[in-house]
Amino acid sequence: MLKKSIFVVLGGVSFALGTIGIFIPLLPTVPFYLLTAYLWLNSSERLYNYFTQTSYYQTYIQKMLIEKKATRSSLFKMLAMVFVVLLIPFIIFNSLHVRIILATVFFAHVVFVYYYFYKK
């Protein structure tokens, strides 16, 4: 019982820090949100069941990551978002090294998506 309470409280603190990290660039948002998910999902069977029944979990985690099933349009949308996110620093930074790294990262995403979803 004490462990569950500690997980809920620490998950709340982690969630608050992750949310603050949206506005303060020094705090990393994603690691805090991942920690929040871990802590809250391990704190209670009820929270675990609630989370795994949500449409977001069913669509983005269950089907895509666990079952490795995705439509071509969802894969295209995912790669388009990665492209846009990497295009911003590509345009901002006038450095050949940075541009080569960003292009390599995008290419690696394309290769990974292909091997992850199509090579079985």
What would your notes on this structure say?
- There is one protein chain.
- The chain has 120 residues and is mainly α.
- The chain has two domains: 1-53, no CATH class; 68-120.
- It has six helices and no strands.
- It has helices spanning 2-23, 29-41, 45-52, 55-66, 72-92, 96-118.
- α1 runs antiparallel to α2 (29-41).
- The longest helix has 23 residues, at 96-118.
- It is flat, with a radius of gyration of 18 Å.
- How far from one another are the termini? 43 Å
- Relative helix content: over 70%
Overall average residue pLDDT: 87
Low-confidence sequence ranges: none
- Number of structural domains: 2
- Biggest sheet: strands, sense, closure? none
The total of helices stands at: 6
- Tally of strands: 0
Rg, Å, rounded: 18 Å
Q: What are the secondary-structure elements, in order, as H or E?
A: HHHHHH
The rough form would be described as: flat
Strand content: under 5%
Structural class: mainly alpha
